[in-house]
From TrEMBL:
Residue ranges of every copy of the ABC transporter domain listed in the record: 5-253
Gene label: sufC
Organism the protein comes from: Acetobacter aceti
Family: Belongs to the ABC transporter superfamily. Ycf16 family.
Keyword Nuclease: no
GO molecular function terms listed in the Swiss-Prot or TrEMBL record: ATP binding; ATP hydrolysis activity
Keywords: ATP-binding, Nucleotide-binding
Highest rank taxon of the organism: Bacteria
Keyword ATP-binding: yes
InterPro entries membership: AAA+_ATPase, ABC_transporter-like_ATP-bd, ABC_transporter-like_CS, FeS-cluster_ATPase_SufC, P-loop_NTPase
Entries under NCBIfam families matching the protein: sufC
The name this protein goes by in its record: ABC transporter ATP-binding protein
Amino acid sequence: MSELLKISGLHASIDADGAPKEILRGVDLVIPPGEVHAIMGPNGCGKSTLSYVLAGRQDYEVTAGSVLFKGEDLLAMEPEERAAAGIFLAFQAPVELPGVNNANFLRTAVNAVRRARNAPELDAVGFLKAVRAATKNLSMADDMLKRNVNVGFSGGEKKRNEVLQMTMLQPTLAILDETDSGLDVDALRIVAEGVQNLRSPDFSALVITHHQKLLDYLGPDRVHVMAKGRIIRSGGPELARQINEEGYAAFLREAA
C-alpha cells in the first residue's frame, strides 16, 4: 500500500453563531505507511480542525473532498470505527474524567479495539504486565494508573498519559495535536521517544506542532506548512528550520 492516508480537496465548516464558518479550504495530503509527517502553521489556520475531522468529531461538517484510510472511506466511519481501524488522536488539552479509574479506562479501550480487530482480549494479569512495561518506558509512576483519568495530573503527566494510551492501543496512524504544548525539555523527549518506539512499516504519525525541538527528536519524513485552511508548502525537515528562523510571514503572503 503506497498510501495509508489520502486527503483530497477537503473542505470543512463549523457552526458559528448559527452560520457555517469554513475552516478547511481544500486540504490535500498523502501519508505513506511507516512515515512521520509534521504540520506547522500559524494559530487559526485549521491544523486542529483537520485532526478533529480525521478523528470524527461531530461539531464539524465536511462540505467537500474525500479522505481514504487504508483505501476505505474514512468519512463514512463512526468515530469508534475509525479507532478500531487504527486512528488515534492525542489531544492538545486532554480532558479530565472524574470518577473514571485510569487503568480501567485504558483496559476497556484496549479490549474494545482488540475485539474490533478480532484479537484476543487481555485479562487483568496480561493487561497489567503490558501497561507496567509501557509506563516504565515513559518514566511514569505506577500510581498514575490508580488515579482518575487526568484528574490532578500536571500538563506533562496528561501528555505522557496520552502517549501511554497510544502505546497500548497500537494505532496504525497516530495524530498528535500539539502534544508538545507546555512541556519541558525532559517531558518533550519522553513524548518523542514514545512515538519513536512505535515507528515501524505498520505505523505512521501526523504531528501538529509549533516547535522545532520536537521535530529534532522525531526526524520527520515530511513537513507541511498550513495557512488559511490548506497546505501551501511541503518539504523535508529543513522546512521546519526555515520556519523557526524566519517565521510564517513569507508563507502567509504565498497563501494570500
